[in-house]
Write a structure and sequence with these properties.
This protein is of the alpha+beta class and 429 residues long. It is built from 14 helices and ten strands.
């Protein structure tokens, strides 16, 4: 619809009104722009000037209030509350303003007002870690531990970098492992594994069982290697049964290849080296030594399609036990350990062989097979028959080379290893 104003006076009045509106709008925009320019320079006087130019902008009283609250030179708690209150009146949806007003109110001793502000900030920023960290600390300071855990949980669920600080705080505040696990730790593998490793690093091994149980019961997947530290701690703490239970569960969850399976026919896992060397748990491990090459080899093998190749550089008289595997066994039982090896130009009188020893006390059990030196034209079987004592429940099977006592003692050459088997035996040595 087109409106035509025929009266000249009316047209003039309309034009004048338009000009006035334009001027007012220009002044308003100009004042707001000028206020913004002035407020870019952080200074209390600049904030006050900006508030005079643009009194409807909540950011300027917020900045002034924060200055009165946190600045040593301009500290004024009353003016901090006045300005922060003005900020939330102008913009009730700014979580930062409510957080600062809550802090200022707490500083003035008005804890009821402070809690009200903190809860309002929580409503506006329920999953933003920075806000949840501050809110959690407020409730913790006022001895509301369970409420603080709720907010710290949000931090752990969405942000990294706060973990150890939160765990340390939680243990100091409550010392209650079950409460921490249920109220603080999010139900997802990442935070649960972080917390498990924290417990291990702070020597709280007895608190790890419920964490592991929750991980084991979860349908969520995670890399089995994330449990390497846990398995090592359990083995190191002389708890191989617990470690084996964890290992078995990892396999049942499909996190370890199904070929890594103990059988009555072979207690060694991946004894034919057809799968990757896991490097943790009850898989094969390789402790690196400078100059010594260790890897799977698909060009030379005794069975299937791969073997393990170890190549010595010829510049060291090595005491070598660096390819090894932990194997659970029964106390007071007989076993037969065997391996096939093939060598190429192994020097010195002390060549590679296989060894089995008690994982905790080699004085109870430590046996070597015969050795191989020089070059073997075919695969050579080596074996050990042994009996575990009443205190032996975990052995180490390793590819070994003891130090040579000869003058020409630096070892060079290659050895291939394949088909390592460890089986129960009914006969004694």
């Amino acid at each position: 619809m087109h409106i035509t104003i025929k009266n000249s006076a009316a047209r003039l009045a309309t034009a004048v009104a338009g000009v006035i509106i334009f001027i007012l709008l220009f002044i308003w925009v100009g004042r707001a722009y000028l206020a913004g320019v002035i407020a870019e320079r952080p200074d209390l006087k600049n904030y006050q000037t900006a508030m005079g130019l643009d009194p409807g902008n909540a950011q300027y009283p917020l900045s002034a209030g924060r200055t009165y609250q946190y600045s040593v030179q301009n500290a004024n708690p009353d003016l901090a509350i006045k300005n922060l209150t003005r900020s939330v009146q102008l913009n009730a949806y700014d979580a930062q303003a409510w957080l600062d007003l809550g802090t200022a109110s707490e500083f003035q001793g008005d804890n009821a007002k402070a809690e009200e502000c903190m809860r309002r900030a929580d409503t506006l920023a329920p999953r933003i870690p920075g806000y949840q960290w501050a809110i959690g600390n407020f409730f913790l300071f006022h001895n509301n531990v369970q409420e603080s855990f709720k907010h710290f949980r949000m931090v752990l669920d969405g942000f990294t970098g706060y973990e150890d600080a939160i765990y340390n705080t939680a243990w100091k505040a409550s010392g209650n492992g079950p409460l921490i696990l249920t109220s603080l730790i999010p139900n997802s593998p990442g935070p649960e594994i972080d917390y498990l490793n924290y417990l291990l690093s702070t020597r709280r091994l007895s608190e790890t069982d419920p964490v592991w149980d929750r991980l084991a019961a979860s349908p969520d997947k995670f890399p089995a290697s994330d449990m390497a530290f846990y398995l090592d701690v359990l083995i190191g703490a002389h708890q191989p049964d617990r470690a084996w239970k964890v290992w078995t569960t990892l396999r049942e969850k499909g996190l370890i290849p199904p070929t890594y399976l103990q059988t009555p026919q072979n207690l060694v896992e991946n004894g034919n080296f057809e799968n990757a060397l896991l490097g943790y748990g009850f898989g094969w491990r390789v402790a690196a030594v400078s100059g010594v090459y260790v890897d799977l080899d698909d060009s030379t093998y005794h069975s299937a399609a791969k073997s393990l190749l170890i190549q010595f550089p010829g510049n060291q008289n090595l005491e070598y036990h660096n390819v090894y595997q932990f194997v659970p066994v029964r106390p007071s039982s007989h076993y037969h350990l065997s391996v096939f090896m093939k060598t190429d130009d192994i020097t010195t009188d002390s060549g590679p062989r296989i060894e089995v020893k008690d994982a905790y006390n080699p004085a109870l059990l430590d046996k070597y097979s015969d050795q191989l030196t020089g070059t073997s034209p075919t695969w050579t079987p080596l074996s050990i028959d042994f009996e575990t004592g009443p205190k032996t429940s975990l052995v180490v099977v390793d590819i070994a080379r003891p130090v040579s006592q000869e003058f020409l003692n630096q070892i060079a050459g290659k050895v291939w290893v394949d088909d390592v088997t460890l089986t129960p035996s009914d006969h004694s040595e």
